[in-house]
Amino acid sequence: MDINMGNGGIGVPVVRRDAMAKVLGVAQYAADFPHENTAYAALTLSKVARGRISRLDTAAAEAVAGVRMVLTHRSLNESLGDETFVMKGGHMQSSFLPLTSDEIHYAGQIVSLTIADTLEAAEEAARLVAIDYAREAASASMDDAGLTEEPADSGIDVGDAEAAFAAAEVKVDATYVTPAQHHNPIELYAASAAWQDGKLLINLPSQWVMGTRAGLAKVFGIPIEDVHVESPYVGGAFGAKASILPHVVLVAMAARRLGRPVKLVVPREAGFTVGSFRPAARSRVRLAATRQGKLTAVMHDEVGQSAVIDHVAFAGMEATSKMYASPNIRMRAATVATDVNSPGFMRAPAEAPSFFGFESAMDELAVALGIDPVELRIMNEPARDPVSGLPWSSRLLVECYRRGAALFGWSDRNPKPGSMVAADGTLIGYGCATATYPSAMAPSSARVRLSADGSCVVYCAAHDVGTGAYTVLGQVAADVLGVPDELVTVEMGHSRHPSGPVSGGSITTGSAGSAVHMAARAVRERLFATVAAGQDRSKMTLADRHVVLPDGSRRAISDIIGGLPGGVIEEHADWKPTDMDDKTMQQGLAGGMAFAGPVGGTHVSFSFGAQFAEVRIDPLLRTIRVARMVGVFACGRIINPRTARSNLMGGMIWGASSALLEESQIDRARGRFANTDLASYHFAANADVGEVVVEMLDEHDSVVNAIGTKAVGEVGIVGMPAAIANAVYHATGVRVRKTPILMEDLL
Amino acid sequence: MTSITLTVNGEPITATIPPRLHLADFLRDHLGLTGTHLGCEHGVCGACTVRLDGAIVRGCLVLAVQADCCTVETIEGLSDSGEVADLQHAFAARNALQCGYCTPGMVMTAQDFLLHAPADASRAAIREHLSGNYCRCTGYEAIVDAVETTLNARRTS
Ligand code: FES
Ligand code: FES
């Protein structure tokens, strides 16, 4: 493909490097890798939510022709050892590994893994594994009676919010609920494991190849170098593929025991409980203001669904407490343990549920004050972080609102609910909300190689989960080295590459990108040093495959590098965020979770956005359509406007989907997720989405990192559900304080 | 085991297979045509879309034995023949793919739309036709852009 001929540097809308492989159907995802003589695995899942296995009979399953092994808690006799849950410093999706005991902790728990010569035989046998359970009462919903809230160790307090709230002239006090949701990337979870000479090669879709390698090495008690994790293409992740799922360990154990490669593709239904999910949450928001609209108290109490087997907490208070200027802020969080598989990261894990409530409450306050909701937010823009008092590394939220309002046509809005009606009677509603996401970073390594022919290769064990990292990381190197895009190659998604961070928390570009930048600069330095020792390097530049010397003369890169031993210049860099100590950095580079930010020693770094929605509601049937969405974002420097726009747009469509469609329904009597397939777990199809407009402001952030980038991947979803709920209120006068917002909520 | 004879991407194939094998698994595991993806295995997501005797079907809902004596075309076949080169180019140019997992199925369905759509088909008609193919990433807006671009280009060429 020749679309990209020419400059492939920072800021250029370079076409995705992986585009052709994907449109041609040749990109290899985890389940596409052939291993010779592979055996196929199938799962049997628990039908009860809590209890014990009282009887287990695998005879019928083992009698199926072609069956090689039926792994159950009786036959496994292995464990995770010291390896544990990702939120306890390990790499696993859960601290509990199925098949290590007869205990059942949640419905859909793996109770056996059957392996056969063919997939069909494995599936048939898996159905024949006979199990009886001693069933105990279970609660999969945090609304079940008798469950207790466990308060978090710490909250956030500025001033005296309770007193200010009690004394306030205008106030809002409301509670908002969001349901459990599942990521449902279109690519199913999969794992394909092969052992050779004590070394493990595993293909799986991964957002964290280094963490997966470190975790599996620990589980199997083998050196880190003996584990190879391969994940060049990932068919969507959204947080689902960030930690090691239990089936991955079981498949590797089975392959070792059988002495034969084993492959498992986890069926969609099983994915609901083999993987993680976004837990349900409840937000009570209390806002108080003067009659003129100045906030005097901001309070947010969040309760999140957790699991009995693992404590998981995703309160959004770190972000909501920083949204608006208020002298008094009080944030609290709590969790409720339920009998479910461990919840996990899902696109803006803390922020998306939290902002639905918080930004709905801001709209309710605007209504109570009779102030335009855009103006209310602008009036309360904080000059500094209201909690730490530190300056922002950059914050153009007001500019986002001004530009977004203009793009959307906000001035056409008649604030009176139900006042905007189309000629056919359709109710029209306009709503807005703020989006934000922390710009954290993690240590990363990278290697950059420049060859005599002018080509450049970037190596980093980061991942392109659809975000565009293959393209973006190459652009960073191309920018430093003046290499045209068609001569850039990027190799990622394999644990043999220099250490890359987990692709979660919207950190890849800032972290891996900074490492690539550092390595590329080292290559440039060596090039300059080679060509003209003793000359002023700061006056040398690179252009068109030539080094331009201070006197204006040019030396071809091919001549310079061609004369070097090996014919290449290659540099490795280990990069860490400014405030991180060396020990934490080393832990991170060795496959540990090591984040810095968004609150640093000298500044606070978040991405921001203003989001607008127009809904159209049938006056009788009350069907809701999102006709238009507009999002204007300030995310620092945009390396590639083409891929960044798609991330933000994808996030906004997720937001619309979340607002109107998505819910993992819980069958409370049986303590299980009820809609565990794509026919009944609804998310947005093409016809559900109207026009989507995305703009990114030209924001210069010289503090956040050397390349000036902030978080892009998740901020797009954050404000959208509230913007839509606020638009629904504007269209109908009905305030719905839960998602998904359904037609029956408007009757 | 059953023996079937069919044409896949122009090549005659004879295979002995279990009757319960579905077409998508046959293409992927037996013929190595892994461009056909699986996302739900019950006909909802469209990732497994292939052409069977010229009409698009869900590879996960068709048994391989049902394709006996039929012609099957997959993304690999359409790519090799160049039939969808312009559409694929438009997908890349409009960034109508992110993770790319839905993309082969989306291209198959989009080409089906383009072959049958009136030249003045609207964006709404494109959206409607593509609504049986999920893109979770979600590039819907860009996918509609890419199909519309191709529709316009084919009309004028
Ligand atoms: S896999 Fe066939 S429609 Fe989803
Ligand atoms: S590009 Fe990822 S599902 Fe469509």
TrEMBL record, chain A:
Q: Pfam families of this UniProt entry?
A: Ald_Xan_dh_C, MoCoBD_1, MoCoBD_2
Q: Which InterPro entries match?
A: Ald_Oxase/Xan_DH_a/b, Ald_Oxase/Xan_DH_a/b_sf, Ald_Oxase/xanthine_DH-like, AldOxase/xan_DH_MoCoBD1, AldOxase/xan_DH_MoCoBD2, AldOxase/xan_DH_Mopterin-bd_sf
What GO molecular function annotation could you give as one example from this UniProt entry?
oxidoreductase activity
Query: Where is each Aldehyde oxidase/xanthine dehydrogenase a/b hammerhead domain found?
Result: 24-137
Q: What is this protein called?
A: Xanthine dehydrogenase YagR molybdenum-binding subunit
Q: Which UniProt keywords apply?
A: Molybdenum, Oxidoreductase
TrEMBL record, chain B:
UniProt superkingdom:
Bacteria
Entry keyword annotation includes Metal-binding: yes
Q: What is this protein called?
A: Carbon-monoxide dehydrogenase small subunit
Q: Does the keyword rRNA-binding apply?
A: no
Pfam families the UniProt entry points to:
Fer2 (PF00111), Fer2_2 (PF01799)
InterPro entries in UniProt:
2Fe-2S-bd, 2Fe-2S-bd_dom_sf, 2Fe-2S_ferredoxin-like_sf, 2Fe-2S_ferredoxin-type, 2Fe2S_fd_BS, Beta-grasp_dom_sf, Diverse_Oxidoreductases
- The UniProt record lists the 2Fe-2S ferredoxin-type domain at 2-78
- List, in alphabetical order, the Gene Ontology terms for molecular function in this entry: 2 iron, 2 sulfur cluster binding; metal ion binding; oxidoreductase activity
Swiss-Prot/TrEMBL keywords: 2Fe-2S, Iron, Iron-sulfur, Metal-binding, Oxidoreductase
Q: Which organism is it from?
A: Acidiphilium rubrum
